[in-house]
């Protein structure tokens, strides 16, 4: 029996999407306001009424069409086409071209200036503290 002529098992598609979303049956049940056993029954059902399917799709954060048209082969194909193993493939590293839109030396100078300002404020605060303590000491 070919894949095209075989009817889609909607419950199995829901289960796969839920697993891909790293969601447990209990979490889906809570989102639907039902029990975990109800979610299990839904996932074991070959067909689901449209109202319930819309609720499940909303809880999973996907469209009804995504559940109806879900296919493991397509997901694996997308993963294979977008994943690169950087330990064996240097093309990913070579494709990353980092060019900052600022001069790093200017940033260093700017940070140094900020450091000087903070240091001057610290010295001024210490001078103010000493002056205040001297006033208190003279007042006694």
From TrEMBL:
Query: What SUPFAM superfamilies does the annotation carry?
Result: lambda repressor-like DNA-binding domains
**From what superkingdom does this record's organism come?**
Bacteria
Key words, A-Z: Coiled coil, DNA-binding
Q: Which SMART domains match?
A: HTH_XRE
Q: Name one Pfam family in it.
A: HTH_3
Q: Which residues form the HTH cro/C1-type domain?
A: 14-67
Does the keyword Coiled coil belong to this entry? Answer: yes
Coiled-coil regions, chain positions: 108-135
Q: Name one GO molecular function term.
A: DNA binding
Protein name per its UniProtKB record: DNA-binding transcriptional regulator, XRE-family HTH domain
